[in-house]
Records
---
Amino acid sequence: MPRLAIRYFASLRDERGVSDETRETQARTPVQLYEEIAKEYHLTVAVCALRVAVNDEFSTMDAVLKDGDVVAFIPPVAGG
Amino acid sequence: MFCITSFPIEELPVAKPECAAGATVVFEGTVRDQNEGRTVESLEYEALESLATKEGQRILDESLERFPILGATCVHRVGHLSVGEVAIRVVVTAPHRREAFDACQWVVDEVKSRVPIWKKEHYADGSSGWIGAKGLTVDG
């Protein structure tokens, strides 16, 4: 099974309880991955409010993930 | 240049304008003591630093294409900030003031909406919360 590294930030990290983890998963896209994790850990940030970065570049929630990818889920930002 | 720092921005010198600039606009966003009617004691900023730096630089590059300006820089603080400390500084130089003000405003707006930086407020009553999460509005 593909193995992914996952990073969490801000409210999402608080909810998940860790800032990063590796996970073996059948999820093929960030949206599938998030839904899988959200269900398991009762995450409340809505999928439609999320952005995602794969290997340190913005990506789309329906991009195809591959073994070894680093997936960072980005909850609503609030800089400035 | 866009950079993220844990160093107090108020202690950093403002970059000298290019000699052709007739206008230099400096915007500093500081930690406010109130938000949504609650008393704020301090803030914590967190960044996805590598991507934030890249996206911030893209915004500055875009500002040079959109506005007739000579230069734009931005530095954003991370870590724990007390009320009154500078969270963000944007410096725009241009031949004329109007373009400098417009570009500066645009850069600040884009940074707030695009760059992966998050803000947690600590309130006087001991509670805290991430801004932008769970329907809280983002402002300031």
Note: Chain A has one domain: 3-74.
---
Amino acid sequence: MTDNSRIRVVVGMSGGVDSSVCAYLLKRQGYDVVGVFMKNWDEKKDSGVCTVTEDYQDVAKVANEIGIPYYSVNFEKEYWDGVFTYFLDEYRHGRTPNPDVMCNKEVKFKAFLDYAMELDADYIAMGHYAQIKRDDDGTVHLMRGADQNKDQTYFLSQLSGKQLEKAMFPIGGMQKSEVREIAKKAGLATADKKDSTGVCFIGERNFSKFLSEFLPAKPGKMMTFEGEYKGEHFGLMNYTIGQRRGLGIGGDGKSNEPWFVVGKDLKTNTLYVGQGYHNEHLYATSLDATKLSFVAPIEDRGQSFHCTAKFRYRQKDSGVTVNFNDERNKVEVVFDNPVRAITPGQEIVFYDGEECLGSGTIDHAYQNGRLLQYV
Amino acid sequence: MERIYADNAGTTPMAAEVIETMTEMMKNVFGNASAVSSFGREARRVLDESRHVIAESINAKSDNEIVFTSGGTESDNTAIMQTAFLRRNEGRHIITTAIEHEAVLKPMAFLESQGYEVTYLSVDENGIIDLNELKDALRDDTILVSVMMGNNEVGSRQPIHEIGEIVSESNAWFHTDCVQAYGILDVDVQKDKIDLLSTSAHKLNGPKFLGFLYEREGLNLKAYLRGGDQELKRRAGTENVPAIAGFAKAVELASADKKELREKFQNLKKKLVEGLEHQGIDFEINGLHDGSELPQIVSLWFKGCQSDALLTNLDLNGIAASAGSACTAGSLEPSHVLTAMYGKDSPKVSESLRFSFGRYNTEEEVERIIEVLSKTIKRIKKGR
């Protein structure tokens, strides 16, 4: 085995099973492993129950089991300035942001990366289900995780090659079931710990309630595009395009089909609703996106190219054609087939086979050239 | 990797002599000091002798003024809470400082929630209170003044003698948290007119979970922990006689070496400061460095370097220092002491490290600290 003992890897440990196994595997490979827990949220900022203390205790337990030093670093300010401010701002503008994408871009692969370098790290490692391919010339490519069900490249898609240059994803080539198996065999304290499903700072709690502690909810009218009043909504920020839950509208005699959010108008504070999962207002044929970021250079693909894309996490890929503007700071993306519930504020992530090329943030959706009223 | 321990204000390693005493006691004197038997009497004798050693170390009038507790925290809590309770009909105003240990500040906050009024004296840039502010704050209904003898984070010392004089002319009692100063400074409760004084054994190479509260005769505080009649009914629970004997041994060692230790610590501190200057490190000393401060503690501001990154780098090189207290998620909390001295927006609050020396530190260790710290700081600054 190669001697890795002089290579320092700083592992971002969250207290979950994935990062625990990361640290364990690296230690077994002989690296000089240092565990660091990130404290990104000040639990005093809201009224929810925060699991940060328990998570840190789990980091301590696992690190001691593996035999590595562990520390904690406070990125509350970096998170607040780089992620949460943006998050609230997007909601304020009627959009649905993705804080995990921003967290990777601004905290995990920026503040944490810088911090790891201050600890004399050669690499950082994370428990993401994603893989990295390095060309001989040093170009870095981001590849999907081997577990297609868990692939997390969606959340990493805004990272630059430079941000990923020093990253390792030790479990990216594994299935989740294998990861759990390794944790069990190694007897790690987190082997049976439930996966967290929530956004890091919100955890498992009620999202609307959380949001209302930071943004005043402005109730308003629920209408159909045909002009029919259907009741009151409790603040546009609580609704996402294509959402069914929480509307509280019954059948109206004409049809028993359930009601969905099919549009929003921030100016008039109106929530548009329509019946049927396949409501025509929910289908777009193209979108435009800005805040583009690509892992490896893509200039050689020209002004226009065909690839696949995801419009939200865990969605199946769809075929799309990407058309750059002249400044290459905006793209028009035309879908091979209409796509349901395109959501402004979310990322559109581009793939070429197994490679995640990068992403942009969705600004507008169109149906055959007509702007859909989604914001 | 050779490890270096420079966090003696956090806790100290036990002295070999203390371990020996305790081991002997654990083997041979296991009786319950309250028991009516030869076993009990043996334990009682050790307890009395230990208490005497400790009473003498602070010039207490009587051995009965010493109450053994589980440590500094219990001593502070007992002094504050029981004074507040006992004197609640005489007044509900208490004076303390902004830079006390949490073991003082948390009981104060609790008392505030129960209707007491607490005045927090400010400190200057050197971490020292203004006696005029104290005089102005004292009122007829002030029942307690609690001011620490030496600060655990920056080593600033308060004018205890003057405070004792001022408080003795009022209705208030004077409590001092002496945890960080005991075993280093000369303490005289009679000369300094101290009514209540808290200590902890593990800061002077004694065992953990043990301390004492000095209660001047006549105060008649009620027990904080109720139960059996131990400690003249002032602290229930069977005394840990072997540990108390170890504590007395640690006090004897400290009393014998205090003067030399103070010189040794000042020299180590001087060496550290001069060594860092020699390396061209951009830093400042927080508080005074003229011999008037606690000699074993030095707090340094490393301009442009976050405390957590420095502390972690030191630890990865086997060196233990400190930077205030950690929250339950392990990350550093902004120091309330540095905040009180420099304001919350000062970079000193998040860019400082504390080194605290103990009787086993050597000059070679300080040289190694200088080397590692300088290398780390230069590397961090170069990486930007």
Note: Chain B is about 40% helix and 15% strand.
---
Amino acid sequence: MRPLAFAATCLSCLLVSMQPASAQLAGEPYIHDPSTVTLSDGKYYTFGTGRGGLVSEDGWTWHAGGERPGGGVAPDVIKIGDRYYVAYAVGGGGLNGGHASLVKVMWTKSLDPKSPDFGYHDVGVVASSDGTEDCDAIDPAFLLADGHLWLSYGTYFGYIRIVELDPKTGERIAGNKPVDVAIDMEATELLYRDGWYYLLGTHGTCCDGPNSSYNIKVGRSRSITGPYVDAMGVPLLKGGGKLVVAARDRGFGPGHFGLIDLGDGMEKFSMHYEADMDRSARSVLAIQPLLWRDGWPIAGDNIKAGTYEIQSERSGAALELAVDFVRMEVNRRGGFFGPPTGPVAPVAMQTLAQDSAAWPKDRIEVDLADYMIRPHQQWAITPMPNAGGYFGSPYFKILIAGTDRALTATADGQVVTVPAFTGSDEQLWRIDQLTDGTYRITPKASSGKATPLALVAIGASTPALVKFDPNSDAGRWTFKALSVDR
Amino acid sequence: MRLRKSANVISIAFLALCAMPAFAAETVQVDDRALLPFFTAVASRTKGPDSDGFLQRWLLLEPIVKPNRSNAGFTPTYVREALTTQYFPGQFTVVPHDGKVANASEPLHWHALDSSLFDVKLFNFAKALQKPTYGVIFWAVTVVYSPRDVPDVRLAVGSNSASMWWVNGKEAAGLFGDRRMVMDDVVSPPLTLHKGKNVIRGAVINGPGLSDFCVRFVGPDGQPVRDLSIDIS
């Protein structure tokens, strides 16, 4: 772990404590080919190749759990009405050299084995490959769009195909024929957004730990049956694809995309890394924000430990302590423009000690102001891995860099700082990247409430905790890195 | 899978193949279902590129066995060594003809075929001939005729898995690593297509999985060169 300086502007910045900066999910998130994360009975479930899966109460800490009969590879799950449909493949995948496979569907009214509604009912085979044709019917993925239920499937052995199912029964629509839509990908996923169908698939090499070159690419089409093309216009039937996510941080081989739509302009996606180098290079579940840029999905970033300016999208102003501005005195002999009278020399930035000399010792309000690269505008963001979390990230503490002064939510919807971090829920913050790349900041103390509160610029210079409006810039924040831990 | 002897094959392609002396005395089992969707017989003397400029008429050599349990080892050094090793006489110089035998460690036949798709499905080619499909090297040769000298064109190649390509005897492109089929994956430096005959030669190496390639020429504007005639008669 080492600091990576991004700006020379912050001579007074101190590195935050050496926490795991790129922490992946907590618990034991070991899985390969995770299905779309699905909420059932208050818990989140995902199933992988094999019989079992993972379960989580908050999207952050995952444990082995869930039951999925049938075995086989790479299932997917979708909830329609009161049923959870599960598609999975038996055979194929080149296992033992074979490519004959059956995609089967079953349903249950609960994914929680302890629920009285739990119990799988077999629907039957909805797609297949005979081992000779140029298709290997594995890796099924559902999409429900405009009342139609679609299923994509296939792997590197030939074509990716799409069939239509009956959303009332999960059965194949009578007479429906498979349509070839792509080559040389596997673990596909279909999305529908703004009149476009998106076909995401995993390229590269599977199942070789840190040597796996798995990465996720996408093409789109106005029609569910294609033609799907990438941003360069290259058909996915000719190997095209625009990158969504590749290896990053200490994770190799991202594959098997699954959308997690959390609403309010916040989308995330699940995947597995073929190798998490912090977990003995094993295959693990991972969750990242999903951004949309120019009509294309791309992986975002969970916030990392580091020191940041927190900039309001509403005004461009920086979140800061509402303290007296301390001038920086420099030698202005001979004027401030034109060359200096003596040797040219760098000038030290204002130090924390200089800035903080007159700060109140107890509670200090926060406001928004022009960013002046002052210590009272620089925030150390540190993950708190033992304080729980949410999709893809633990909660964070937010301190004035170099101090223990903590950003704190108050009971009356204000946001202030107090001299010391206590670890209370009012001082733990959820930082979610939104689909436009900005972030939403919400206190843990607000989570689970009927109307969760978020940090919002209710005025150009006034932040407060109010309901988040996804259609406004007021609740959107940009983190400008001054230094980031790696 | 229906396996037949060549004399019974309905496939026009293999009727043509069987007519060649090299095949006449042999029993060749063919899975026509594996071949017909992807190849047809060469039924005309010349053929142009398809609408996207892809060259679909090739002489394909039956696969040379070269065991590789994984495609992950296809480093540039390994591939270059594997594909510049001489396996049969005239490997880098001869323009073969349909039915010609290459005397590798075992006799291997050249097959003149038209690909039905933009890509040439090598796996299906080998499978249809009941030849090894994994752990192999495929050699491919075609000849394009240009009506004029065309400078500053580039050879654009996609292959599964790694491959090397030569134009008129000069190395033009190398695709290394565990490659997937992506059109225009690797594009050569500018080269000149001569007026008249130009020989394109390629070799594709594959461990497990499907194998194919696609080749076209693109001009300085990135658009395909279509004013060509392919003749491997």
Note: The domain at 3-21+305-329+349-485 of chain A is CATH 2.80.10.50 (Trefoil (Acidic Fibroblast Growth Factor, subunit A)).
